[in-house]
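Q: What would this chain look like folded?
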Amino acid sequence: MAIYAHPDDIEFTVAGTVAKWAQAGCEVTFVLITSGNSGTHDRKFTRKSLARVREREERESARILGAARVVFLRHGDCELVPTLALRKELVRRIRRHRPEVVLCNDPQALFFGDRYINHPDHLAAGKGALEAVFPCAEMELLWPGAGPVHKVHAVYVSSTPSPNTWIDVTETIDVKIAALSAHRSQLGDRDISPRIHGWAMDEARRAPARTVAGRRSTARPKYAEAFRVMRLLREEA
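A: My prediction, written as structure tokens:
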């Protein structure tokens, strides 16, 4: 289950990994907390009409990536706050779909270099997701009306300054780019592939060979996505 703030957040950050897992037979659920209804400078849109467009784009993108379903919670774009009500909504989704793995943004990643301040919705979505995963989704006495409790096995935190795992996405980088291209309201006709290739190559170069997931050799992949992985359910020795 990937829990993110806006349509296209999954595609920019974790789509190579999502596509890889979907191709391997995993059932993937996207949870978009907003519909991106403020994400334009084009005055021809209203918030309502933009939400419709962006939801349609996200569904097409999810189809390309192989996701089983897309859930929109329809909170306001640029208005997201990690409230108790949001936490309960996310707990309900986790308990309903029962994912082994949850992917989300790092809620502490405020700055990227010296040119980008992280969107407040990204921070709020990451915080809300982590709070829902632990401890709330697994607490027997908490919100029994939200469904049977569920223990998430692992969390893959993206867009983090402190990764510990790199996923080889060399075979799915083109699927990631195709999925991003579905978001025409955001990208227009721009060719996003050089930017995505560059980011993924940079991540692969940063990866210590021993921590590259999915490879037994010491060689680094050509393209990678980076995560801080928290393993919440450890297998018995």
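Residues 47-65 form the longest helix (19 residues).
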